Amino acid sequence: MREKERIDFLRKELEDHNHLYYVLDSPKISDFEFDKLMSELIKLEEENPQFHDENSPTKKVGGKVMDSFKT
């Protein structure tokens, strides 16, 4: 898989897993597996700055607070 395709795949995959984890409270992969995907994406983005995207999961922290969370 070429770098751009892999970057796009990882971004989508990580966004999906973030949604499952933070919004639905229903993770499908372990934290370790998530961290491996994130590390791979970070490395690829560093090696390929021409594919920079401010909306990348590597640029975000946390997620939306669940509606059921009492404040």
Can you characterise this structure?
The chain is mostly helical and 71 residues long. It has helices at residues 3-23, 31-47. The chain has one domain: Helix Hairpins (Orthogonal Bundle). Helix 1 runs antiparallel to helix 2. The longest helix is centred in the first third of the chain and has 21 residues, at 3-23. The mean pLDDT is 91.
Under CATH, the topology is which?
A: Helix Hairpins
- Averaged pLDDT, please? 91
Helix content estimate? 40-55%
> Judging by the overall fold, what is the CATH architecture?
Orthogonal Bundle
The rounded distance between the terminal residues' Cα atoms is 45 Å
**Strand pairing plus helix content: what structural class?**
mainly alpha
- The level 1 CATH classification is Mainly Alpha
What is the total domain count? 1
Strand tally: 0
The CATH superfamily appears as Helix hairpin bin
H/E element sequence: HH
Low-pLDDT windows of residues = none
Number of helices: 2
* Shape, principal axes of CA atoms: elongated
* Alpha-carbon Rg, integer: 13 Å
Percent range for β-strand residues: under 5%
The largest β sheet comes out as: none
